[in-house]
Amino acid sequence: MSFDPIPYDTFGAFIHFLSVFGSAMLLALIVCLIVGVITRGTKGVADVFLAIGDFFVQMIHLSCRRIWSLSVLTIRESLRQKILYVFIVFAVLFMFAGWFLSGTADRPDLQVQSYIDFVLKAISWLVIPIMLLLSCWSLPEDIRLRTIHTVVTKPVHRIEIVLGRMLGFTLLGTVILLVMGTVGYIWINRQVPDIVKYQPMPSAVEQLESEENSSDDKTEEEKKLELEDSLLVSKVPLYGEISFTDREGAPTKLGINVGDVWMHRSYIEGATKASAIYKFKGVDESDAIKGDLVLQSSFEAFRTHKGNMEMGGILFQLTFVNEDTGLRVESPAFVNKEYSDNRMVFNRKILQKKYDGSEDVEVDIFDELVDKEGNLTVEVHCQEAGQLLGMARSDLFIRTPDRPFYVGYSKAVFGIWMPMVLVIMLGVTISCFVKGPVAILTTLTVVLVGFMSKEYMNEILSGKMEASGAIEAWYRLITHMNSQTELPPGPVKGIIGVVDAGIINFLWLCQQVIPNFGIFSNMREYVIKGFDISWSAALLPGIVTTAAYILPCLIVSFYSLKLRELEAK
């Protein structure tokens, strides 16, 4: 995959949420107290605390029956707006999608990826915008038409109106999402064949022998053995920790930088002591597939010369190491096939070559190469001089027994459901204090910034970007000063520093308030590449992000709706 699945720090995220939420609530309380004292004197202080208590009183006296009734009313209003017409658009897309997604027969895996990508994008691009429009337009339209009066005149609390809207839109969106997800799953299974020809990755010697003795006269039994792997599968990888050694064999933090702008991979030099060391933790016999240890790699080659083009790739070798006993077992040399699944199947009883003339010895991988703590260390060496092999932590993993495709697919659909719920909460919240068109534009802006600008904001706030301040950038642009030159000392530099610091702090606050929708987009890539979605690296961050906005949205929407004049058009 093109990213590194890092486990989510739940405790750190919870502490961060408490600090940001607590700071925001304290700041809002201070502002309200100041405004209350200015407008109403000492009585304003009591009014502020009474308003705070009103929220908790209404939360305690919530009625599930009233909330459900408001949810049903919300669903009926949405159906009257012909929301189900979205299924017509969805059906038209699937009727003609096969015409434009046809691929080549020699790369069926890429064709499957395009099918899955199309289905998940079609679902998300239809469901989320519709829910955004409904959630932003419904409440302001009720206020404009004064139909909201039939609700507020009943014994119903403001917070129940908000919860009823959110729950109603969520239920409606969930039903639409389930229907689309089911249809999409059936369509993918109809388009994709059940099996594909697959053989374990041969060693370099085996590859040369097979090319020399190539023949189409295969028995039926051999052909059946090739039909082993399904195109629709959810692979369950076991990732390790990666470290490097330099060309002298000394430990180093990273490998060689070959000039790539994207620093995802580091490179090791061929025909030297340079290596990448993967340490897999918690390895046991349950990770084997039919008793064999299966490793899968996706290394990237950097060539300084043409090399041996007959091999079709750069040679590399794996060395299994038991750090407790010092036992080392080298594998045969493999040819790195770029942009393909390089799956290396090792029998549990691996042969340790003896170069001193003695007889080779069989070594049990799980009993003798896995140390006492359950760690398996694998060293990767590039075998060709003048060539470099690039790798990241996610480029080599132990492939444990696969799960059915519907497991990963259902998690991907759940990954669409979470941002849909988040968009509904934001849309209902913003529509509580502005009108429909403004609410749509505001919510859409928040979603787009959360999808596309989070990394840019992180780069500015990290201080790594030169002349990242807005005023400093304008000053340098006007005075034709490059970013490496220091600003001249004086009052101008001080004023620029103070103003830019205020802008940076405001940007930091915006960064904390705006949801990171990029968390949800990674889930789709898992399924497209044939992986099961990781709980700790993908699902948990999405669930925590969605849940973190429930309480703030309820608080903001409650006070916005309470202070809003419902008679206003």
TrEMBL record:
The chain crosses the membrane at residues 12-38, 83-102, 122-140, 161-188, 406-426, 433-452, 533-561. It comes from the Bacteria. The lineage of its organism: Bacteria, Pseudomonadati, Planctomycetota, Planctomycetia, Planctomycetales. PANTHER family: ABC TRANSPORTER PERMEASE (PTHR43471), SLL1107 PROTEIN (PTHR43471:SF10). This is ABC-2 family transporter protein. The keyword Secreted does not apply. The keyword rRNA processing does not apply. It comes from Gimesia algae. Keywords: Membrane, Transmembrane, Transmembrane helix.
